[in-house]
């Protein structure tokens, strides 16, 4: 149970009028709804990896990207900084917490084209520089087909942009006025711009090649960036899925075994359909 009064004091939220209420659906952390005298807040108790020595620095670096996007007008819940530090995280009791203004809406209610357009808007306000995309994933333990996939998508120099880095369906919200919000910026940071666009299109297309191609067109029109019709555009998606797979492969919980099966299936689906996806463009 979250101590709503203690969290409210630490973040300067005002007096709670009721106990915090758990909101279901988070994969990595706990989300709670906290109502004070005149406002409602989303309170996140950090769980996965919160004990790692680099965790706080990583979240605060992501918060710097989030804060710039908020100041630039990207649709997102307002982040609430810790009053005396201006940082994202505060320790309350024995846990770390983050707070945002609550936004009512429906999660995941968007088309792939709308999500790609939102991503282009995020990229437009992120810091840009030339560089090399994140290191590739080592797939040796998972079979020759995935080793070949990593070889095919190996990336080189590219445009790096500070971005959301996890704009899948669960991290979007359609508000009552129709605005599409980007939620959960804890993974924000530098990434390859076209690689993130290709990964988003792949996730949102659900295996539909025409939807995939349409999302990339929508991103290109909005961003002005050309996305090459080459396998390396999938490098970021493969690296992210590979890291998720490696994390769960070391854990004994049934949920992690399910994640391993699901992630392996997704990677193998891309390996089998990569040329068809590129051909659909």
TrEMBL record:
<dbReference type="InterPro" id="IPR011009">
    <property type="entry name" value="Kinase-like_dom_sf"/>
</dbReference>
<feature type="domain" description="Aminoglycoside phosphotransferase">
    <location>
        <begin position="22"/>
        <end position="220"/>
    </location>
</feature>
<dbReference type="InterPro" id="IPR002575">
    <property type="entry name" value="Aminoglycoside_PTrfase"/>
</dbReference>
<dbReference type="GO" id="GO:0016740">
    <property type="term" value="F:transferase activity"/>
</dbReference>
<protein>
    <submittedName>
        <fullName>Phosphotransferase enzyme family protein</fullName>
    </submittedName>
</protein>
<dbReference type="Pfam" id="PF01636">
    <property type="entry name" value="APH"/>
</dbReference>
<keyword id="KW-0808">Transferase</keyword>
